[in-house]
Specification:
With about 70 residues, the chain is of the alpha/beta class. The protein has one domain. Strands 1-2-3 form a 3-stranded parallel β-sheet, with helices on one face. About 5% of the residues are buried.
Length: about 70
């Protein structure tokens, strides 16, 4: 059985996306490159984290997909 998943990074948090209209599982990834590759400003790291948590809540509220975070 073939299983397809969708990987979503911090710069791919779109409210309207073709990926949201299929039945694939979504995995939100807090990738090292977006959080610790360089010495990022603490507000930028906090912003990425907050937007990912907000997007996870948005997807959970829709209850259309299985979400891993």
């Amino acid at each position: 059985m073939k299983k397809t998943i969708q990987l979503v990074f911090p710069h791919q948090l779109f409210e309207e996306s073709e990926l949201l209209h299929n039945k694939n599982e979504i995995i939100l990834i807090e990738e090292h490159l977006f959080f610790k590759q360089y010495k990022f400003h603490k507000q930028k790291v906090a912003f990425h984290r907050a937007t990912m948590k907000g997007y996870a809540a948005y997807l959970t509220a829709q209850k259309k997909k299985r979400l891993l975070y």
